[in-house]
Amino acid sequence: MIDQFSRSEIIYGKDAMEKLRTSSVAVFGVGGVGGHAAEALVRAGIGRLDIVDNDKVSLTNLNRQIIALHSTIGEYKVYAAKKRFLDISPDVDIRTHNVFYTPETAGIFDFSEYDYIIDAIDSVTGKIELVMQANKNGTPIISSMGAGNKVHPEMFEVADIYKTSVCPLARVMRTELRKRGIKRLKVVYSKETPVKPGESGEDKGTRRVLPGSASFVPGVAGLIIAGEVVNDLVRM
User: Fold this and answer.
1) Beta strands 186-190 and 156-160: pairing type?
2) What is the pLDDT of residues 80-120, one digit of tens each?
3) What's the Cα-to-Cα distance from 223 to each of 65, 66, 112, 113, rounded to whole Å?
4) What is the pLDDT of residue 121?
5) What is the CATH number of the domain that holds 132?
6) What is the three-class DSSP state of 204?
7) What's the domain count of the chain?
8) What is the pTM of this model?
9) Per-position b or e across 210-226, b if 16+ CB within 10 A of its CB
10) Which end of the chain is more exposed for a tag (fewer CB within 10 A), N or C?
11) Is the pLDDT of residue 202 over 80?
12) Which domain holds residue 22?
């Protein structure tokens, strides 16, 4: 019988598609990287998806975020994402968490419920806490390292955090995770040297420089992450 996942079933087979249908994945951060990863999982046939983000869609998100449209500007990202994802796959169980993930909000989540966790947030403190919670509960996790200020998506790699180099965020994560006794972490990262951005006009006076982002770079990282999750889940 033909359905929306028939072309995927040709590749993976019925048993694998059933595995995806009964799997639960949590995506922390549904921006440029996480939004693409989450949508790819929905299109792959994931049965339950928890999406976590407290931000709203803004005008500057339009250049790279898959949920960002003129019609969604001002909406909370998790609600815009849920509406879009249900239009793709009406049977997927989407659970929204309009929360900024930190060690203080970690208690909201039962990490033992998830078959996989995607870390696509920007905060180092939050990323570390996610890894610690995943490790504590024995839940597989994959983390996105820096995608901002980069223009060569073909340079992304999947590696263990301790085999990364060049990426400034990966360097910080290596140091902090080593202190905490974390032995391994699957990440998507790039050895590309980030472009040094100029001062952002909207932030002049604050002396804070916003990262730049190409339309095609975060999405590639997100799709690589989704591929890792799907392929790992069907092998479990």
Assistant:
1) antiparallel
2) 999 999 999 999 999 999 999 999 999 999 999 999 999 99
3) 13, 12, 25, 23
4) 97
5) 3.40.50.720
6) coil
7) 1
8) 0.94
9) eebbbeebbbbbbbbbb
10) N
11) no
12) 6-235
